[in-house]
Design goal:
Layout: H1 3-29, E1 52-53, E2 59-60, E3 80-84, H2 85-90, H3 96-100, E4 106-108, E5 121-123, E6 126-127, E7 132-134, E8 137-138, E9 150-157, H4 161-164, E10 171-177, E11 185-193, E12 197-207, E13 212-224, E14 232-244, E15 250-263, E16 269-270, H5 272-275, E17 309-324, E18 330-349, E19 355-357, E20 363-391, E21 394-411, E22 414-421, E23 429-432, E24 447-449, E25 459-465, E26 469-485, E27 490-513, E28 516-541, E29 547-558, H6 560-563, E30 586-599, E31 604-623, E32 626-647, E33 650-665, E34 683-694, E35 697-706, E36 709-710, E37 725-726, E38 729-739, E39 744-751, E40 759-762, E41 767-770, E42 775-783
Parallel strand pairs: 7-10
Antiparallel strand pairs: 1-2, 3-9, 4-5, 5-6, 7-8, 9-10, 11-12, 11-42, 12-13, 13-14, 14-15, 15-17, 16-41, 17-18, 18-20, 19-20, 19-23, 20-21, 20-24, 21-26, 22-25, 26-27, 27-28, 28-29, 29-30, 30-31, 31-32, 32-33, 33-34, 34-35, 35-38, 36-37, 38-39, 39-42, 40-41
Length: 784
Amino acid sequence: MSDSRAASLRALLFASSAAGMLVAAPAFAADAPAEDGVIATADQQQPANLGTIDVNGQVRKPAPVSPEFVAPLVDTPRAVTIIPQTIIEQTSASSLQDLLSNSPGITFGAGEGGQPLADRPFIRGQSSGNNIFVDGVRDTGGQQREVFNLEQVEVIKGPDAVYSGRGSGGGSINLGSKSPKLNAFNNISAGVGTDGYLRGTIDSNMPLGETAGLRINLMGAQGDVPGRDAVDYDKWGAAISLGAGLGTPSSMVFSYYHLTSDQMPDYGIPLFTKLVPSATSTAPARPRTDSGILDVPYSSFYGLKARDYLTNEVDSFTFKAEHQFSDFATIRNVSRYSETLNDYVVTNPGDDGYVGRAADGTYWMKRGTKTRWNPVTTLANVTDVYGQFATGAIKHSYDVGVELTRERNRNATYSTYTTSGSTCPAGLTTVNGSPPTAAGSLGAGDCTQVFNPNPDDAWTGVINRGPISTNTTETIGVYANDSITLTERLILNLGVRWDQYSVKGVNAAATQSAGVWTTTGFTAVPERTWEFTNYQVGLVFKPTANSSLYASFATSSTPPTLSAGDQNAAGGTGTGNLADVVLDPEDTESYEVGAKANVFGDHLALSAAAFRTVRKNAAILVAAGVYEQAGEVEVKGVELGVSGSITPAWTVFGGYTYMDSELVRGAYNSVNVGDPLANTPKNSASLFTTYRLLPKLTVGGGVYYTSKSFGGNQGGAGGGGNRVYSPEWTRIDAFATYDLTDRATLQLNVKNATDEENIIRTNGVHHADVAAGRQAILALNLRF
């Protein structure tokens, strides 16, 4: 960590603690009742108020922030999970990946196979990294997202093109940001923990007159990843939001968000198959595990502290204007300009293919590298008109809108030429790959022991950025949604969306020698344009006002420039006989039936859904040298969800997902047909619960379970790729809070309390990512 960033973090933590002590000190003498404007914590809220704060400072039940949701959740005919601010705070989450562990059925893919080191969620077996939104606007660019400025996270399961447009076969994730309120409050948190954990946040809301407000959120954090040698991070963020006309028919909100994150990237531990690719190779001393993961301590780190790095930067400007003409029509416009940067050099253990055995019997491997320099700029504008009206006895709740976006994505790689460092020992004999031609030829500074890697190896060398390739994406989306109340018990939900999606680019070509790039030319990629229309139809039957039974059908389209991964890419043509053919989008359709109910006086929300999702039209090899768009995958499953309070003292949040996935049709000679899909575990469950044991003491915790999950970089309708898998794992977290006063609370979180060693995902052909070990965090939370 740089001295300047460390100083900034210490200053924020000191400010958090000092401000809190000034506020809390008088209250230690005698407990005082909460005053107007004090925001209640989760422990002080009323039962089932797992919600957020509205413009008047009142706790409201979770609801999607986008006007595209034209009905309450209980009347929306599809599976939707809303993770409220309370869960964000109680679980001590600090990243989107942490937080989404509370929504079963979502896994995260590894950053490999052309995919960036960034958030790569898979929803119902489909890669959804391109389907992350902030306040209803697509959040582009590879990044690892923070949660300090979030009020809630909305997860839509299944094809949702009518809400989010292209590339949404598995679903989408919308992050709801904190926004200005009309009451004054300050929430401050300062936390310390094991493994060098330090985190401070400030959330301050200041009314500016009767209809305006300013909200400022600050965050600074640093620490190590428990159980992972040499993996650390430091980051800071700021969010400023100014609103005018709040609580009136006409309002405007301007927001700015910034995040800087620096960390040591981690590609986990190698796979056994990388060391022994064929039956004729000499096996390393350690036996193969059933999962295909190399049998090494989970603390093993193969990177170089002197070379590797990962930097994420985000700057985003958003302007939202809204005017209500009447109950019939409200117009809302959101404009955003954002810049993101994903910049890294990471060691991919053994990826260069050489493994050698020294005379003393030790095994050595070359440290392969993956690099990326990827800035993305985005300009987006979304306009909605929504409201309610009646045609006779039939009531309508509708939304119509237009989305316009332009994304400019630049990509380059780095050379990592070694001039001095840790050489391989003399006398190596080959284990796999081509044999070394001379002692030390695996590469000076690029070699480490397979079973005893040293991240502190000395390294000096040249890191130069290569020539830049560019692609530009432009989209137009027009959509309409209507919730039609036919009778008191029957609701028809209709949605349709048309999209035009265009991509063009310039690809750079270069050669590299001794760390120096020589550009050999640039090739323009012709502009490709696709148009597609998607829809959803749902029928809701309401046995009571607080319950529903539903059936729905929905579709989505994934352009070929997205089907192979999470980032837009120029091109869109196939291979072989399809090399000059512009491919059609892959199509996804889903059938879903379910039930929802709000019980216990509307304090507890229950949901259940059964679904079948089919994705078609992937380009596959159907005969020798012949490709067709005929690939198909299927995912069938069941989801259960619970959120709210069972009693005034007992709250729960969690669910269970069962997914039966299958590669229905792949290449004509594929051995993977019938295999489960990558990153799609058959069973996953989570439950976070709290119980107020004493008036000032609340205890609880979380249980998280995932069955084994196959690895691989499947794109389109690809399968598991091989038999490498992440074994099933269970994590148990502990939680407790104690109210020191009405304004000060101590919160204790123990993550992975049993210190279980888990693999959270495998790349399938390169590496396995290790879960964090046990960590204890103690935070002082203050409110005034």
